[in-house]
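idk why but the lab printer keeps eating my pages so im just putting this in chat instead. protein + heme C:
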Amino acid sequence: MLPLLFLLGACSVASSPQDAATPAVEGARLFKAKGCTTCHTFGEGVKVGPDLQGLFSRRDEAWIRRYIADPVTMVEQDPIARELKAQYKIQMPKMMISPAEMDQLLAYLREAGSPTKP
Ligand code: HEC
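predcted complex ->
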């Protein structure tokens, strides 16, 4: 009986629900909660805005951060953003994203939009 109890104890330790969500998992939650899914897909084509599949192969990270933080100002100042706006005809709204949320969103965008995704 003793060895069995020991095993049970070991199992409950191993499966303790302590693992915190990774930044990408938190980012996936935010991507829905902030309404990004209303306008964007990954690999399912254009919705209201661009398909975000392969995002990191066409833009660099600094650009993506600046763009998501304030797409309205970017359209005024950045030639790529201006071109996107001309193409999609609708302005992506400025979303309220904290710096911590931005890191999580970026982790998710990188993972979900990776071209090597199966
Ligand atoms: C109301 C629709 C809408 C919502 C909501 C929205 N977007 Fe957009 N997004 C667009 C449109 C439209 C564009 C293309 C540029 C433009 O026309 O403003 C765009 C462009 C982008 C781009 C640049 C894509 C590229 O190919 O360079 C990124 C990155 C992006 N959005 C991320 C997000 C994220 C992250 C969220 C949620 C926090 C979000 N968007 C919410 C409509 C939206």
